[in-house]
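User: Structure with phenylalanine, tokens only please.
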Amino acid sequence: MKKIVTKEEPIAKDQLIRLLLTLQEDAVGAITESTESVDTLRLTWLGKNSEFLKLASSMRSVTPEDKQQIGAVLNGVKKSIESALASKQQLTNQQAESTADWFDTTEPGEQPPQGHLHIVTQAIAEITDIFNRLGFTRVRHPEIDWDWYPFEALNMPHSHPASDEWETFYIRYPGSPGKEYKKQKIVLTPHTSNGQVREMEKGVLPIRMINIAKCYRRQIDISHTPMFHQFEGLYVDKNVSIGHLKGVLDYFAKHFFGPDRTTRIRPYHFQFTEPSFEIDISCGICHGKGCKLCKEGWLELGGAGMTHPQVLKNGGVDTTVYNGFAFGWGVERTYMMKSNSNLDDIRLIYGNDIRFLKQF
Ligand code: PHE
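Assistant:
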């Protein structure tokens, strides 16, 4: 830093100019190289206590002839310092901008929260896909329906005790009281079998439908929810046999549960199939031999059977030419058996606890 020139000392023009030019060189160099902030640098080089101001104040002691020349130099020096400060400011701004865009590519990433389909939606997609490959097409039928479709159309005479098995929710609706109301009730469908006669009523044969829908029953405990899903297969064609049914069931079991799984059919009773069966799938652990998990080697999947002729007739199908088979299982139950999750409470599926749902 140069010697500070005080007011008292008279100063020669040349010396003052030299001092000013040296100051300019020092200031511009220091501003360019310094890591200090622009504000601090401005204070140092142009502030109240700066050498520049001291030199400027010595203008008072120069002769009027010299004043003009020195004034011009003084202005030039000030401009140079100011422009050095402006460049510095610009550089600082640019650096700030590029730091804002900068990121460390080696830093471990933060995973954004990402959702996925609910397990039941996943199961429905998978089931649909497997049956599509066999030529079954997914269809939709009402989930709120006249009680005729889930019961009478399926060979259960009105008020027949068989319908008690389906603990049905009835809907009261305005406009149909009295006798009329008794005949035509509206229900939340207790099974997807209501879709059988509805599909036949379309009048297109053969039928290869897979009807997946919500079902409702008055039941709630660790293995039941009042709302659940079923998938219902219906095949109506010429010369359909139990062999075809077994083939379709095995195809599904192998593709859904794994190539080493198989099914067996046991005699059962439904009003709308004759003969009727319960379908079991071989246990994934012991393959039918019997183990701690399954006890007997087989796990129960759902119902099936050869479509009762009365049901075909109710749907307007000529039973001298056509016959068929049907099956209906619960989506949740089937999916839980696949994932081997040993879920001790099926209600968790609809509990909306993200910690549970995340696992699937
Ligand atoms: N609908 C029957 C039930 O809910 C299952 C079933 C469907 C049985 C089709 C036979 C044929 O239990």
